[in-house]
Amino acid sequence: MEEVKGAGIIVRFDGTKCIHSRHCVLEAPEVFLANVQGAWIRPDAAPVEKVVRVAHACPSGAITYERLDGGPQESAPAINVLRLRENGPLALHADLRLSGQAIGLRATLCRCGASKRKPFCDGSHTAAGFVATGEPATGKTDALAQRGGPLSLTPQRNGPLLIEGSLEICSGTGRTIERTTKTWLCRCGGSRNKPYCDGTHSKIGFSAE
Question: Which of 40, 67, 94 is a domain's end point?
Answer without folding.
Answer: 67
